[in-house]
């Protein structure tokens, strides 16, 4: 009897810190994240909402108090344990005073079947980088302006 070894694979894991000028302006982003999770595009591993006060102190917000279904409150319990206190402190150092941020760790689950196929074929990732969307948009704008000249 032949057995095929199962190759456990995960998609790439990403971390993002998204700063908002206030607590009230997070709804659209929360809705978009919810749609990505529901579609299976990403798997949410951790989500913390952090407020940085004018004096520089940080507070991890209770997701239960963020304002119902149209906010990050629907992600209560999204805690894998990957984010630690040092991650919160590092995120806080990047935030402006008087802002609120979503600290999110997610798996690009759409990529898991590809990763599994690569691993079954003996392949391995040897390099990876993320190109910021703003860099891509700037490059495309620059190309477009030279083409229209």
UniProtKB/TrEMBL annotation:
Cross-referenced Pfam families: DUF6325 (PF19850)
InterPro entries named in the record: DUF6325 (IPR046288)
In terms of superkingdom, the source organism counts as Bacteria
- The protein here is known as DUF1269 domain-containing protein
Give the taxonomic lineage as stored in the record.
Bacteria, Bacillati, Actinomycetota, Actinomycetes, Micrococcales
